[in-house]
Amino acid sequence: MGKSLEDKIVVIGHLICFERKIVSKNNEGTKEEIIFPKSSEELKNFIKIFRENHPELAFIDDVDHIDNNKDFKYIEINNCLINDEDKAKIYEVGIPVKGKVNIPTRRGFNFYIYGDCKLSQVFNQLPFGILNKNRTGVGATTLEIKSERNSIIVVPTKNLAFNKAQTGKGKYLYVGSAIKGKADSGTTKKDIIKYINNNSIPYKKIITVADSLKKVLGVLDYLKIDRNTYFLVVDEVDIIQSDSTFRPKLENVIDYYFTFGRENRALLSATIGEFSHPKVREEYMIDIDYQIPQKREINLCRTDNPNKLLCDLVLGIEGAGKIVIAYNSLTQIQIIIQLLQVYAIEKVEDKEEQKRIKQEIKDKCGILCSDASKNKVKEFYQELSMNEENKTLLPKEINFMTCAFFVGIDIDEPFHLISVSNTHVPYTLLSPNKYTQIAGRGRQGILSEYIIYNVNEKNIDTHNLSNYKDKLVEKAKEVETLYEATKAICKRNQEMIPLCNKINNAIQSHATENVGDISIPLTYKDINGDYKISYFNIDALYEKKVLKNSLYAHPRELEKALLKEGHHVFPTYNSIPYSNIQKQIEKIVEDENSETLKEEMESAISELKKLEKENSLSDEVLEEYINNSSRGMKTFYERFKSLYKYIDSNILIDKLVKDEETLKGVDKDQYEQWYQSIIFWALDEKHTFKIAMKNTFLSGKDKRFTPDLIKQEMRRIYFDLGLKYNEHSIIALFRKFFDTSEVHNRHNKQRYYVVKEVFFDSLQAVHKEIIPSNEDITSLFKI
User: Fold this and answer.
1) pTM score, two decimals?
2) 305 and 284 in contact (C-beta within 8 Å)?
3) Mean predicted confidence (pLDDT) in 449-462
4) Cα Rg for the chain, rounded, in angstroms?
5) pLDDT tens digits, residue range 698-707?
6) Pairwise CA distance, residues 484 & 585, whole Å
7) String of b and e for 326-364 (b: at least 16 CB within 10 Å)?
8) d(CA 341, CA 313)
């Protein structure tokens, strides 16, 4: 005869029970006996023993809340009180038993909610740890905003942060940069201090974006306020995973997250994936399941011409309700709008009627995108706003949406949803989680859902996809070990710091993973200035790899993924010829975008010259421009920021712009020419590198050098200073530093370079700032 014991806590209605099930086996068979505690004291004892046996699973807090003289009504889990509202009558909290198989690998619990309700009807505030909501629109952020404690809430976009703060009518504070078209939307250090010191607001609610979290915490430190008097919430944490590759500051959010105590922090998402970050994996996971599953009916439309199929679909739905089109490419959206106009008049002969229909289509279309792209989309730019009933409505009948609006927003009216993943534009590819997030924007439900996609079966790399992430982590760990070694050397011997800096720069430049022509770093500088593994970049790289080489590499993979989630999927396939009209419109849009970029450049140049005149240029100001500019302008601002300290802005702008007609920026090679030249010119005359180069190539009467002699001397200088160079481009590198001319000797047919002077000396420019003689050259030159 044998016995097994299983303990769990069951919350039924308004009663908390400790259920002990004893299973006995004897010759007569199996017998189950379930016993319940007779008093609150017995329940307290069980909780105490349970905690002692399972310290790593100590979910149940504040045993003293159990009152001997009252019915069992409440229990606190992760500092969160379970309410007894009617819509949340039954919860079951499963507790793993020691020695039992299939114990969850994550520490945490599962809630099973009967009924369709908001989280405020279940919890009094957010529990600490990771809350996997498993659906959108359940009011998790609102729950924290209305909780009776101080909160810092990090959300994905500044428009979302600003709009959330506005609902508080002065009781909540938005912290972030200014938003175009919204007066007084920027937040200064003084604004934060004034808000925190406002005693009329009992519970402070600071709503910010990732880039401004450092500013908020800096004010708390300045005021000597313990961070743990605030509860930190990072909303839509999966966005940090997916967007960290092009927004490096996102990873710092998690660094700051772990500066808060375990019970003062939470990560939220409706679509949480697997984390490779070891500290995040140690967080308690609260998984919510629902009696009423959120399954969707999805029309899955595979095609070889996504843009044409999208137009056909929109024109077919038009008039039957508002439409939202999720397409993460402004260029493709602009093409679609023009195609819609052309296709709408295909069978119309009257010129005036054609003109009327085209204008009508144009008036129906709007684009929801970041305000940094406002100039690019011009009159189509739209924003979500609230009506008198505090409901957010779509601004147009046909609404295009980029990734800035894929998460966090509420749309309080039903609409038809069309999401597009186009393999010809890789950054438009969406994961099943993203489709869920997008569908979740419709708080009143959606009228219909379509997913349009194509597949790219060429150049597919499925080799070792299963352990791709493990290999990236292993590579990053090796890199981190190298950094730790140089750090240890510098601690022992400060004279080695310049050499270690060189080594670290070399490591950082090679510790990357290529995605197309973009290099994604596997490490990042944390908030303490140390190089650490970029786990979120690794997660994002893995997702991109899966999307490209699996989900969109085979016709039925996306369908299988959606079916696995339990959705009702209706697949179709349409082969549509690529027409000449599409090619023509693509060319028109390309030309229009070039003209728009020219206008943006004119405005940027004018503003930079004004700031120079006012002596107001700074890294902070330029960083603001970089963060809030369109993709086409970011490169210009970044290049300007890298050199503006050393040379007059007028000269610099002249060098960074290809020609006065188009105002297009110079290409990468030309920029590198100017960069190397200006940095060399700006070096202190006593800098070792500058002395070596000038003594070698500018001293003596005969300043003619054969290519072989130049290579020989350059190798010597670089070797002596421990610098790296590319053997194949060493002559080109030499010519970036000096103004030279090329001559040929007719007698011996020898080619020479005549060295005149330091390249930028010929411009007779005035130095704005001299680079000190002890500056580490590897942190200056992009070698």
Assistant:
1) 0.72
2) no
3) 84
4) 31
5) 876 667 888 8
6) 54
7) bbbbbebbbbbbbbbbbbbbeeeeeeeebeeebeebeeb
8) 14
